[in-house]
UniProtKB/TrEMBL annotation:
Pfam families: CDP-OH_P_transf
GO-annotated cellular components: plasma membrane
UniProt function note: This protein catalyzes the committed step to the synthesis of the acidic phospholipids.
GO terms of molecular function: CDP-diacylglycerol-glycerol-3-phosphate 3-phosphatidyltransferase activity
Keyword Lipid metabolism in annotation: yes
EC number: 2.7.8.5
Taxonomic source organism: Dubosiella newyorkensis
The name this protein goes by in its record: CDP-diacylglycerol--glycerol-3-phosphate 3-phosphatidyltransferase
């Protein structure tokens, strides 16, 4: 097993760590910023999320640079990404830190795009992420960071940057989903 695949597995293994930290540490434990009620739980989850996100960057970079792209990597890498991001978003909704509608729309889009990709793959068509798909991922990660920081430092000024970035991620998600649908609908509609 090459290094990029090992990094993907590490990312998958960090998902239950994020869940355990988020669910086992009380939200108000070790408040480090009274103004935003930022506690140690969110900081620890942010640290693990950052480590997992860094593995995502390096596994892709190493796989492309050294031509270590494998079938396992093509399969597991996007699953690991979605497991990490969607798990954290669901936890944030559970704790009333993220808008449930935005998160449901993004998860629904992911399910639809995965279905479209599977249909295309059965016809031999491999579809890589486009610009708006990559933008969606960047915006999701930025939103998660801001939400885990309880919108610090913008919360001090009453500016809802975390919510704005979450909705921007949702719009990018829906638009990239439409692009995938428009591009791949022939694989789904041909059997109707």
């Amino acid at each position: 097993m090459n290094l990029p695949n090992k990094l993907t597995i590490v990312r998958i293994c960090l998902v239950p760590v994020v869940v355990a930290l988020y669910l086992c540490i009380p939200a108000d434990a070790g408040i480090v910023n009274e103004a935003t009620h930022l506690g140690i739980r969110n900081l620890l989850v942010l640290l693990v999320f950052a480590i997992a996100s860094i593995t995502d960057y390096f596994d892709g970079m190493l796989a492309r640079k050294h031509h270590w792209i494998t079938s396992f990597g093509k399969f597991a890498d996007p699953i690991a990404d979605k497991m990490l991001v969607n798990t954290v978003l669901i936890l944030l909704v559970w704790a009333h830190q993220a808008n449930v509608v935005a998160v449901l729309l993004m998860i629904a889009r992911d399910l639809i795009v995965d279905g479209l990709r599977m249909s295309a793959a059965q016809s031999g068509e491999v579809v890589s992420a486009g610009f708006f798909g990559k933008l969606k991922t960047v915006l999701q990660m930025c939103a998660i960071i801001l939400l885990l920081l309880n919108n610090w430092p913008c919360a001090l000024f009453g500016f809802p940057l975390a919510s704005i970035v979450l909705w921007a991620a949702t719009l990018a998600s829906l638009y990239s989903g439409w692009i995938y649908f428009d591009k791949l609908k022939k694989y789904v509609l041909e059997s109707m």
